[in-house]
Design a protein that fits this description.
Length: 295
């Protein structure tokens, strides 16, 4: 059973504001302060500090947040499992997926898994990598498939699949089919996903390795929809760097083309992540193995 002061602490960690946390918890701000003071006295350390009037976690605060987040999630998951046993209900699985990882990589293995495990009822939440990490920390989801960059030391994680990032173009693009360096593409209009997108983060990381940035391109347009990007690219209005799994059908249908890149291949792992040191780690490991086997 989760202590109410732990719940207060984790809420402050999510909001980083005592007043906002008090409103979410329906208690007074002095009560929030008392709960945090109790925990600081219990552990003998400061958990929060102010830097330029902004609330920040201390190193001890980060450590406690990670440990208590896992404990709170395990407690919530245990409650769900017990209710399922008592009521002969189906087992709930709360899963997060980034858009590309979900639609093109993990959805089919998940569908096969669910058909083979009718006792499992799944709830799928979508969002970018940063949003799904917040949901995981808050206990909103149990685990997630993400394509973006994250601190692998902060979570338990396994690589579900490694995907190439390819340069998509119109099928009749003048540069299509021939190998080019990244520098040779800088004059071509570029379409990118919104900030926070995993695909964009991987591209920005690859550009940084080449001492480049998005600013090096003559024209960059931000588009929040992957499907719209593919339409714009197919019409010859520019290029975009997308995961190969997201364009392979269009390439096979000859409605999109690929500009092969010279030099190092851009690739990144699609990761299956969950909170560290969970009491249910063995179950997550079995789920990962079952889903991976369905690829």
């Amino acid at each position: 059973m989760q202590d109410f002061r732990v719940h207060t602490f984790l809420t402050v960690c999510q909001t980083m504001n005592y007043t906002t946390a008090a409103k979410e918890l329906h208690i007074t701000q002095p009560a929030v302060s008392q709960h945090i003071a109790f925990l600081e006295k219990e552990y003998g350390v400061k958990l929060f500090t102010y830097q330029k009037r902004k609330l920040r976690l201390t190193k001890a605060g980060y450590l406690l947040r990670d440990a208590l987040s896992t404990r709170a999630h395990d407690d919530a998951l245990l409650h769900r499992k017990i209710r399922a046993i008592e009521g002969s209900a189906r087992q709930d699985l709360k899963l997060g997926m980034t858009l590309t990882a979900g639609k093109y990589i993990a959805a089919r293995p998940l569908a096969i898994y669910l058909s083979e495990h009718p006792e499992v009822r799944v709830t799928v939440k979508s969002g970018d990598t940063a949003r799904l990490l917040q949901m995981l920390d808050a206990g909103v989801i149990d685990c997630a498939f993400v394509e973006g960059m994250f601190d692998s030391n902060a979570y338990a994680c396994d690589t579900f699949r490694t995907e190439r990032l390819v340069c998509a173009c119109a099928p009749d693009h003048v540069l299509g089919g021939r190998r080019h360096t990244m520098e040779e593409l800088l004059g071509v209009p570029l379409f990118v996903r919104e900030e926070g997108s995993g695909t964009r983060a991987v591209l920005e990381h690859a550009l940084a390795e080449r001492n480049l940035s998005l600013d090096a391109f003559a024209e960059v347009s931000e588009v929040g929809s992957l499907d719209i990007i593919k339409v714009l690219v197919a019409e010859g209005l520019g290029i975009s760097f997308l995961y190969e799994a997201a364009v392979q059908r269009k390439v096979a249908e000859n409605t999109l083309g690929i500009i092969p890149l010279a030099g190092k291949t851009i690739q990144h792992g699609i990761s299956f992540i969950r909170l560290k040191d969970s009491a249910f780690e063995d179950e997550f490991a079995r789920l990962f193995a079952d889903l991976k086997a369905q690829q």
